[in-house]
Design a protein that fits this description.
5-stranded mixed beta sheet, Heat Shock Protein 90, 11 helices, 346 residues, 2 domains, rod-shaped, single chain
């Protein structure tokens, strides 16, 4: 971080040096007689050129005083009278140094304070305008960067919180199943422990990444569904269709599991002919994911909380991460609750 800051500072200094080099070179570059030999070229003309060059160099001081001192210390604090006095004082200093240079370089009694003021005042006004613009633009960019950084930090915090809201109850149910399998000396105990271990590893470690491979997310879903199958057995028919995509994509971790959790939360229990159907495929870089489950229309839980806490969670995450790159449809009718998601994986 410190190295990047030092590099940024060096680049900024070099940029300022380059700009001032160009500005101070303009009188010479715009001199149409440059490179043309005039035997009778007046020596006084060269002296005026040197005088103007040194006078232009004097504006560097008031320029940076205005940028780094006058504006932040006075103008921003609405001390307008002291600010104006400081600008006029800097102009007077430049004017006096210009008079000294004139007497040393031109060596001719042509100097008048009125004429010098009229000559230097437009340059002074330009210097104030450019320095003020530079400071205002720089402060605006800095403020925008800070706002963006705060938004990123808030987003990371919120996403971390949303990820942590995955329903833990099924973990306890699986642990109870493990106890039952152990008591029955079932050969399914080992595979079940491995699947649960994979789930925990994914939830605790892999989800720290901003993106995970779609195949890893699908593997997590499949393990979750397999454990639920083991939990409910033949009581709940579960139909799953996962089609492998034509290439590897990345997705926000734990984005799809709330749909499946919601189906098992509301699609089992006191429901006639329960059933859950889950489908996932990719077409042209667009994820097509749907979950259907039977529900009890007379259940107050469904009427009041049809989408479940999980779907409220995922709606928020989709809004934060994918904005206009997704379409989420939630509907229910004829005893079926349907959630359909289209997500642009590009």
């Amino acid at each position: 971080m410190k190295s990047d800051w030092n590099k940024s500072r060096v680049v900024r200094v070099l940029t300022h040096v380059l700009v001032w080099a160009v500005v101070l070179s303009l009188p010479h570059l715009l001199d149409t007689r440059h490179g043309i030999h005039h035997p009778d070229r007046d020596e006084m003309e060269r002296r005026f050129f040197y005088l103007n060059f040194l006078t232009n160099l004097l504006w560097v001081g008031p320029f940076y005083l205005n940028v780094y001192v006058f504006l932040p210390k006075l103008f921003y604090k609405k001390h307008f009278l002291p600010y104006t006095a400081c600008l006029l004082a800097s102009f007077c200093v430049v004017l006096m140094i210009h008079e000294l240079l004139f007497s040393q370089i031109i060596q001719h009694p042509w100097f008048t304070w009125l004429g010098a003021t009229g000559f230097l005042l437009p340059q002074f006004v330009l210097m104030v305008a450019v320095s003020m613009t530079l400071r205002l633009v720089s402060d605006k960019l800095q403020a925008d960067r800070l706002v963006h950084q705060r938004q990123e930090e808030n987003l990371k915090t919120e996403l971390s919180f949303l990820r942590s809201q995955i329903n833990p109850h099924f973990i306890f149910n699986i642990l109870n199943n493990l106890v039952a399998l152990e008591q029955m000396k079932s050969p399914e105990l080992g595979p079940t422990i491995l699947k649960l271990s994979g789930l925990m590893q994914y939830m605790l470690y892999d989800t720290d990444e901003e993106r995970v491979s779609l195949s890893r997310e699908v593997e997590y879903l499949q393990s979750y569904i397999d454990l639920q199958r083991q939990r409910f057995g033949q009581k709940v028919p579960i139909t799953v269709f996962f089609e492998a995509p034509e290439r590897e994509y990345e997705i926000e971790p734990m984005l799809l599991i709330p749909f499946v959790e919601n189906a098992f939360k509301h699609g089992v229990g006191l429901i006639e002919n329960p059933g859950i159907e889950i489908s996932l495929r990719v077409r042209g870089g667009v994820l097509l994911f749907s979950v259907r489950n039977r529900y009890n229309p007379d259940s107050s839980e469904v009427k009041d909380k049809g989408s479940g806490i999980g779907l409220g969670n995922v709606r928020r995450r989709l809004k934060l991460l994918y904005a206009s790159q997704h379409r989420l449809l939630v509907s229910h009718g004829e005893g079926w609750f349907l959630v359909s998601l289209e997500l642009n994986l590009h």
